[in-house]
Amino acid sequence: MPVEQDAGLPSIEQDRSSFVMDAEQRKSYGIPAAEILLFDGLLNFFNRNVIGDEYKSNLTSIRHNLHANWRTDNDPFLVNQLGHPYQGSMYYGFARSAGLTYWESLGYTVAGSAAWEIAGETTRPSLNDQIMTGFGGSFLGEVLFRMSNLVLEKADMPRFWRELSAAVISPPTGLNRLAFGNRFDNLFSSHDPVYYGRFALGLSTATEKQTEPSTRFHPHEVLMDFSLDYGLPGKPGYTYDRPFDYFTFKATASSANGFEDLMTRGLLFGTDYAVGENYRGIWGLYASYDYIEPQIFRVSSTALSVGTTGQWWLSQDIALQASALAGAGYAAVGTVHATTENDFHYGVAPDAMISLRLIFGDRTSLETMVHETFCSRAGSGERAAYDNIIRTDVAFTVRIHRQHAAAIRYLLSRRDTSFAAVGDISQSNASVGLYYVYLGNDGFGAVDWRGSAGH
Question: pTM for the full model?
Fold first, then answer.
């Protein structure tokens, strides 16, 4: 005989419905729209007073841009390929931290970028800026937003330092928390992913170099590196229903050139799967934003790829984690410190990546990554023009005590290019480095679904 529910007690379904209604009431569409307009206005005010006339927009320039054909601009590489994606991540963060979904926030990012192209500058709107700001900015912005929330959820530190750290990672998140208190609290949950983070500090020395036509090269570098794998497959109950429930993030600063790389890659659409008792994986459509500058050349792309990420227990104590992706995007490639100004070009770029991490218990790991980008003639204006770039990264890490480890790393970056203006060029930079590594946990990120998922 069924038991009747006490009319005075809400059901689980009623509780869930009330939470959804409360979340819908607390999220805001108007606040991020106002914040993006204010951000664009302040940025335009700064640029027109510090940089110059191209930012002194007015009603005449806005009317002209509304009717103008979009073009490919030749602003400095760092501005177009790093500054614009970060600007887009700000638009995205305003919307995401106000309770909006990934797709809603993407819409705000694209709209914010278009508003800047039309009203923030006097020059004609730029198609490459729209791609890098609107889409590259959302790919970077979601990763920064999730890392910021991970700090708020997980960090074992006083609240002040948690809030400050989260704001440094994602300034829009910190601003909205400061301005609106707990209004947007609990509108996003990470669902407790398995993650593996590590920080490395080291010295590298070039073992091979072919630099021309770059005019400057530093054979010795101090490198500071942070990497994070988020949502590693295998944890029981963890799902991949939302964009970027799985992602990787890597950023490296160099004494030689400032930024060595900034790379994000996340599962946009996909699901998990299993093969037997020892393999767990995910597959689907991945989104990526990359900025790579190994001193002598640089490449940046925004791309979509089809691929898979998984972990295979080879034995009781040895695990293999791997990713394989192939796709295409829109890329820019050029020489660093070239003899000619703005020596870079854009093109459609097929892209492939494979990474492997072999984990031996909680003592050592061997990692390798090979990433190839082929920037085709499309967008270059030349029939036979191309750039082919391969980056190989190999690291062997040994845990010394708890979260402290040491690593030796080999890094090879090679570019083969053919353009009428510069001819056929091959550039390469190979280096070996020794690093101190601080691990995010006492192991190397292996997920043990046979017992507990450790992070």
Answer: 0.90
